[in-house]
Amino acid sequence: QVQLVESGGGLVPAGGSLRLSCSASARTDNDYAMGWFHQAPGKEHEFVARIMWSDGSTLYKDSVKGRFTIPRVKDNNTTYLQINNRKPEDTAVYYCAAFRGSWDDWGRGTQVTVSS
Length: 116
What we know:
Strand content: over 45%
Order of helices and strands: EEEEEEEEEEE
Mean pLDDT: 92
Shape: globular
Distance between the termini: 39 Å
Structural class: mainly beta
Radius of gyration: 13 Å
Number of strands: 11
Helix content: under 10%
């Protein structure tokens, strides 16, 4: 089992950028992708974005396309989620997860609160 730890959240004003990090204790050849999810207050847990390790391809939820990105980095044990032009509706707990056939391992989340 891989341990995942998110960081980078906080209380921030609208506008500007924020980068969340997800550090993994290890990676294996069976790790296909790393994903980000969030859960806003009073709402269900939702998929946000993911990156495939094989080719670096990314996929984003429609409502965040153009503002959220997963930068490709050389550190294979760290994944980022870049949030640009922060909006109050981005307020949520953000989780990262590792995919090996299913979303098998999860971090505990980092709270992002965007004030208007």
